[in-house]
Amino acid sequence: MHQPPRQTARSGSVVVSFPALPDAYPANRHWHAQLSSFVTRALVERFGDRVSFAPWGAPPLLRGQDAFVSFLPHPALADWKRSVVLDNDTFDNDKWRFSAFRRFGYDAPLDPVADAYRLLDGQFARIVLVNDITRRRVADRDPCVADCWDYLSGLTGGRVSLHPHPIDKAFFSRLYGAEPPPDRARMLVYHGGPRKNSAELIALLRRLGFAENRDFSIAPYIDKSNDDLARFLLKNFFFVGNTSFSETGPINMWEYLTAGHIPYGHEEWWDGAGNPRLCWSYDPARQEENADNLDHLLRRMDVGALVEERDRLWHWWIGRRDNDWACVTTDLCDQVDRLLSDPHPAEKRE
Distances in Å between the alpha carbon of 261 and those of 113, 182, 312? Predict the structure, then answer.
């Protein structure tokens, strides 16, 4: 039976703003539409008609003890500090300082983050969606992330929580096992500019004698609204590769895993769930290892072994509970609940 939204006795409204409307998903399968849908629904269930949605491009009406829930870099965060902010991050020191991946002699451009980080100054709380590598680095005080983590944690008074990227498992696994597996190993490689860089992977595949459009194909973008295309990919590609330098998932790779593909990705965001052969490294000392791994995956594994690995990863991902939407939305609603009764100022005070 449907339970009515729970009302609370506290004053103040909850204003939500995301790039996509809450009812756009799943017709719109972009991850921001999924985010808006799950977060807004959870807030309405907790706070009822105190919740309203503000379009991303319009200034939200905020006043008094209102709480604001949004995603970086919403411009209203510059002036309104009674906010619970969701965003992605890797806390990478070089990305913070130089907007670049600067390990192993690279100076590869990444999305700038410094301006967006300034919007966090004085906010009530921040909920960050991260990959497993980043969570371990933060916990271990890894020098790649420690300075950035300390700086950002200080901006919100230490009220920062980390969660793996959640996925609508029921929806994205709807085609899992629905199509016969490919007849042999092939890889779909994402490549399209710095954010989807796989140029070095593509070059190595060619040096190893793998042929484009026979052993691997290259795509800068896949239309996920096309179920016929999704079925075609499941029937033709065991692997989906993305060796982007230092991104937060990429989130679409978790969608491919949930559908029934095997991710192959940069060790900065993917550890192969225990299989190091599924990891790409930019370390010059590990290029022979990259080559051997690719040869093993694409030449030496038979279909039975590939199906077994596909299924292992799927069960590992589906069986996790920390990547369920409820983990993020419960944390978010709890933070909003605290904020509504907290005297936290709406304006930044020096």
Answer: 31, 11, 11
